[in-house]
Amino acid sequence: MERLIAKVGKMNNYRVSGSDSRTGIDWWLVGACIPILAGGIMTMYSFTGDNSFALHQLVWVVIALAVFFIVSRIDVRFLRSTRVLTTIFIIICVLLAGLFLVGKISHGASSWFSFGLFSFQPSDFAKLILIVVLAKYFSRRHIEIANFRHLIISGVYAFILFALVIVHPDLGSAMIIFFIWLGMVMVSGISKKHLLVMAALACIVMSLLWSFGFKEYQKNRIRNFINPLADIHGAGYNAYQSTIAVGSGGVLGKGLGYGTQSRLKFLPEYQTDFIFAAFAEEWGFVGVLILFSLYGIIIWRVIRHASRGATNFEILYGAGVAVFFIVHITVNVGMNIHLLPVTGTPLPLMSYGGTHLVTEFLALGLLMSMRRYSRPVHKDVAKNEFIGPQ
């Protein structure tokens, strides 16, 4: 993804203006989100006896869309302030640390604050604030990105959140945080030499986590990924059943409400981690192709808006949001078809849950706000501002 945004910017000639075409909501983006939201709700509705998941998710969809439209009308240039970002970053860190004291334990991880009917997962917002913090940091130092010192400093921001998340333990969110940092670093223009150094450090960190950080059930998931048939009745059961569900959908699927793996309770967590498998069983290859096309439109629109950002901050923020969606989609689908270990990563806009849904629409709402107030920038100035003078 190195210099991805610079290349996209050349195609669009960095046309930044205040015309009507750049004000208001991107309805292409909204139009791609709505069918995915509907697909998730219909999948939950068809498999639950009392339909509680579908009804609750519908409420969260309304809340998330409200957040999207409200934030899109707010001038969010205050996020460029170091004081504001520092305050928000500290608040997120305090919330993550507070999980040790009052966090709700679910599936072996204390990642939630529970308030009766309402639960809140701060790690989702940690991913978004990391994108904003890194966009702010790299926007001022993009020409000096070859200096290894900036990689270390940016890595410290990511590592603080990574460490506070993985100790709960929440391996899935921790890995997303790592890949957001890696993706934004690569977009900023990392050298190949530094990339090799980072790869070596990553191997060392993973070795230490395996020896001292991972819980036994997390190790079992990785062992099962390496040897899928070793324990299909134990640690490998979820991944094995999800693979069966995806494959049994065929070309056209079994039809809404006729997915046997989910309906007969063979597929666990079909409303959250394995909703892609449940959807694929009902809608088949054609439905999955449409789903991927809709995600492609979302990512295309995010990158397009990023390429037209008025400053480095908007460009890098948009790049970070694109990485956010790409990594979530890749990890979730990968674990559903047994190409990646099971990590509990939700599928954007589709998995059950309010916190991640609000976070996703908050991220898109911020992008819409940045689209509204962008100032005119000459294409040559914007090019030099992002990738440095030639």
Structural summary, described in words:
By secondary structure, the protein is mainly alpha-helical. It has one domain. Helices cover 68% and strands 3% of the residues. It has 15 helices and three strands. The protein has a three-stranded antiparallel sheet with strand order 1-2-3, covered by helices on one side. Helix 10 (237-248) crosses helix 12 (275-307) and helix 13 packs antiparallel against helix 14 (354-373). It is globular and about 55 Å long. The protein starts with a helix and ends with a helix.
Distance between the termini: 20 Å
The rough form would be described as: globular
- Counting DSSP E segments of at least 2 residues, the number of strands comes to 3
Count of helical segments?
15
Strand content: under 5%
Order of helices and strands: HHHHEEEHHHHHHHHHHH
Helix percentage range:
55-70%
Lateral strand order in the biggest sheet: 1-2-3
- What structural category do the secondary elements indicate? mainly alpha
Mean pLDDT: 78
Please compute the radius of gyration using only Cα atoms: 21 Å
In terms of per-residue confidence, which ranges show pLDDT below 50 for 5 or more consecutive residues? 5-22, 377-390
For the biggest sheet, the summary is: 3 strands, antiparallel
Counting structural domains, the number is 1
Structure summary:
68% of the residues lie in helices and 3% in strands.
List keywords for this structure.
disordered C terminus, mainly alpha, globular, 390 residues, three-stranded antiparallel β-sheet
Topology:
Blueprint: H1 4-12, H2 27-47, H3 52-72, H4 82-102, E1 104-106, E2 109-115, E3 118-120, H5 122-141, H6 148-166, H7 171-188, H8 192-213, H9 216-226, H10 237-248, H11 260-263, H12 275-307, H13 312-336, H14 354-373, H15 379-387
Antiparallel strand pairs: 1-2, 2-3
Helix pairs in contact: 1-12, 2-3, 2-12, 3-14, 4-5, 5-6, 5-7, 5-13, 5-14, 6-7, 7-13, 10-12, 12-13, 13-14
